[in-house]
Every structure is written in structure tokens, then in C-alpha cells.
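Let us begin with a simple case.
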Amino acid sequence: MLPGHPSGYQHPPGYQHPSENQRSLRSEVSQESLLLHGPFARKPKRIRTAFSPSQLLRLERAFEKNHYVVGAERKQLASSLSLSETQVKVWFQNRRTKYKRQKLEEEGPDSDQKKKGSHHINRWRLATKQSSGEDIDVTSND
């Protein structure tokens, strides 16, 4: 009978009991492996692209002509700037967002367009012939 085994269990011949150090090391490795390769493992953080002034100038010029760049045009632009198509695509997405934000800021704080969902309310007012003078509680469940 082995110490620590009250049931009388005996290890097979040639079995070596791992030391505490080996056991904890194996535990750390398996924990790290789970984090890196498990079902919820994250990709390593992407490095932020630093565009050169000349790249930005070309991208801005392309944006002035067209706010959407797709297909062969995006491929050609990316190639000429030594960027990936994904980098160009994301730059245009971010630039469109900036453009929309700037437009809203120019319109001023009292603009109906600045209020989220106001276009839905305006369409409802038109459809139901409601006057725009009364405020509508859009948060109510009534």
C-alpha cells in the first residue's frame, strides 16, 4: 500500500510521480495555452498604421472625388500607396465618419438632424399629419 492512497492503489511499474515543481509548471503552461489557443483566445493587438503625409494627401484627394472606393480602384490606390486594401478600406470608413460628424457640427446643436432618430419621427409626423410643435416621448412604452 502506498502512502497517500488509502484505497490501496498501486502505481504501475516504472511510474514516476511528478514533483511539485513539474506539476505547477505543467499547470502554468496549460493555463497559458488556454489563453493563447482556447476557444475565446484573442488575436494579438494590431499595430496602429501611421500614414505618411504624402499617403494622407493622396487619400484625402481620393476622398474629395469619391467617398466610397471599392474594387479595382481601391486595389490600385492601395498598391500605389504601399498599403493593404484593408488599410485603405478602414481609412475611408473612418474618414466618412469624420465627415458626417463635421457636417453635424456645422449644422449646429438645434438641428433636427443631430437628434438621433429624428428622421423617423418626422416621417411619422408626415404619415399621421402631426404638427411638429408638440414633442413626442419616444422612450415611453404607452
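The second case is a distinct protein. As before, the sequence precedes its C-alpha cells.
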Amino acid sequence: METPHHSLPPGAGRGETGSGGCRRCPYWAAGRRLGTSDEILQEGAESSRRQLLIEAFVSAGRVDNITMVMGLHPQYLSSFWKTQYLLLRMDGPLPYHKRHYIAIMAAARHQCSYLVGLHMGEFLQVGGNPAWLQGLHCAPQKLRNLNEINKLLAHRPWLITKEHIEALLKPGENSWSLAELVQALVLLTHYHSLASFVFGCGINPEEDQDGEHGCRPPSPHSDSSPASDDSLGGSGGKDAMQEVEVLMERMKLLQESQLEEEGVTQEEMATRFELEKTESLLVAPSDIADHSLQSNVLCFVEDPEFGYKDFTRRGEQAPPTFRAQDYTWEDHGYSLINRLYPDVGQLLDEKFQVVYNLTYNTIAMHCGVDTSMLRRAIWNYVHCVFGIRYDDYDYGEVNQLLERSLKIYIKTVACYPEKTTKRMYTQFWRHFKHSEKVHINLLLLEARMQAALLYALRAVTRYMT
């Protein structure tokens, strides 16, 4: 799953200033703050990555640290960047300043002061009213009305109903148009998921971004495997290498069994999903980050205690499982978005496809490996913890391929990213390269975004029919 090594664009690290008085280019700052060593950023040349970072700098006058880390996977970065550019800077139903304010609202739900600070600056640059930044209570009622659906999308999207959509579209002084609401839903899910990526990779603010940051885990400091760090010692390194070999063997056995097996019954498939969903209740981090809400974030959050709750718990009335085949992205979500917000559906679809199929046919020190089974297990496990089931998928594969420490990491980053710790990052796949762990975070970002979008768009469809 790893990526090749890349080099920085010409001029990187010299603090060059963009046109129009924009802030200095933070290439060097990112390299130092993130600890991105020569092994990642200066060994070899990769024209696609270099060109992408130059384009980002020319466009915005800066390259943020999210772009630097995503740049480890240039094919994905290109797709992500096009989508985000359309959402924030191209024609659409919502004015530019409101788009950035929605981004602030979304990031604040996960206490991501990095993204909140970034978009407070962008909000002011496009002419937003500074008074709104005093807190949600100072924003127009129309934006404040998004609070409930923002809260549900961030933490429990399965609770969204057509009544939530109807309340926002109800005629009146502060009503939303359907096109505006669809753009807002895409923005909210985009920034909830991006907060997961920020915490999952431990991305720090650029040196010239004001204010404290809340991103605790350090970003990858090199593209060598974490197992090569001195902290693991001799036996730790051997154990980490053994983990790789066990995973390789399990993938081989599963592939062989699929060729020999006549097929698992639908009943057995359903049983295995319910088992995995129930077992996910037991997957919880033991070392949760102490993450107190900062004032610059708290002012944009109402009901801060509301958070992710396991999709189903024993003794409680569980919502019905979302059968993926009943409302798919390909057949339903894609066409609905494209109808109400042209072009964005196509770009989202491309982004989902790119990350789902992204592979370098490597695992740790092994080359020529088919990683499709592993990528599918990660994607489907994220959807599982959000209550989405694929009838044609054997969830027994999840237990075979995803070790407990990886499950803890996936669930934490996808469901309550602000609780991610450095230890969670270092404990799973200890012999894998940092770029491979970034690759996992890209899968988490997109799987989470698609899951929340499916719930929201299903509610919109039910409202319309």
C-alpha cells in the first residue's frame, strides 16, 4: 500500500511569498513541524506531486500541511483538491463566506481547532462579517438552523430523517432551498471527515497560523517503518515483522478459500455482519486523549456533550441496519447530487473511486501484493460502525484481516477523531511505512464521508418522494 518517495518543488523551504500579499509558503515550516524528513520529501523526483504542490501554491499563495501529507499520494490529492476547490471557490448556490462558516461549524463538532482557525481566516478573506466569528449565537438564524443536522451528521447520521430536511426547507424568512441544502450537506460531511484525517495523521497548524492547535498525535516523521524506531527494541521489531507475515498468510488463505468455497448463504452473511457490529461495541480506546474544548472552538458548538454512540447496544432499541443495496451511492446518491448541485457528484464519485482502488501493490517490505481484500475490509468496517451492511460481503474477512489495535484506531479516527492518540497510531501495523498509514487515513476519510452522505441523501430522497 505504500507510495513512492517524492521531492519538494523548486524553491521549497525558502519562505517565498505568494502574490497579493498572501502568507509565506510553509513548505519548510511543514517539513520541520511535521517532521517530514528527507526520506519522504527529498529522495527521488515525482513530477506529478511537484506540479500539484506548485499549482496549490499559485492558486492560494500557500500550501497547507494537509496538502503536504496528502501529497504522499498524488493521484488522490489531485482528486481531493479538485473537489474541495469546487466546493469552496466555484459557482454554487451558497455565497463564499457562508461556505467557510459551514466548514467552521463542521470542524468545531470534532474540536478541530486547526480547521476552525484555517477557515476563520478564509471567511474573513472573502468578506465575511467578523462579528459572526464571536460564536454561533452571532451568526444569522439560517446558518444556526443547520446546527441539528450538523450534530447528527458528525456523530449519529443514522438518526437523520426526512423531517430534519423538511424543517430546513419549510417556507419562511430563514428557509433553505434544496440546492443550498445539498451543498451544505456535502460541505458538512467533507469537513467532518477531513477532521478525521487531521487527527488521524496528527497534522499540526502551519507556523504562521495563529492560535493553539488541538492535534495531539505527531505526523509521520519519516517513511521508514515505525518498527525501525529505537523505542521498539529488538524483540518489538521482530514482533512487528511477524505481524506483517501473519497478515500476508491470512490474505493468502482467504483468497484460496474464496476460490474453493461454493459460497456463503445470505443468512450466514447477515449473521456475520451482526456479529461484527456487536463486536465493534467492545472496540474502544483505553488511552483517550485529554482534549478540552478551546474557546475559539467552543463558541461554535451547541450541545458539546452530544457525540458518537455505538450504532447498537444491548438492551437498547437499535435503529434498523442500513442495507447498502437499498440506497447506493452509484444508483441514488450520485444522481441526486448531480441534479441539485451539478458537477460535484462526478467529482465525489471520482474521489471515492480513486481512494477505493488506490494501490501500489506493496505491503510493508513485500512487493507485488494484491491489497484489494485489505482495502475492502477497511472500507466496509468503517461503514459497519455506522450501521451500513453490504449483503454480498463476508464480514468474517474483517476479523481475519484487521487486528484489534487497527480496529481501535479505525473506530476512533472515524467516530471520535478528537480522542486519537500517538500511541494508537504507533500500535497498529508497526512494520508498515508512514505513507501506508496515511493511505489508511484516506480510506477512512472517504468511507466516513460516503456513509454520512448516504444517510443524509436518503433523507432528502424520502422528503422529495
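The chain is about 55% helix and 0% strand. The first strand starts at residue 322 and ends at 323.
Keep these points in mind for the review questions at the end of the chapter.
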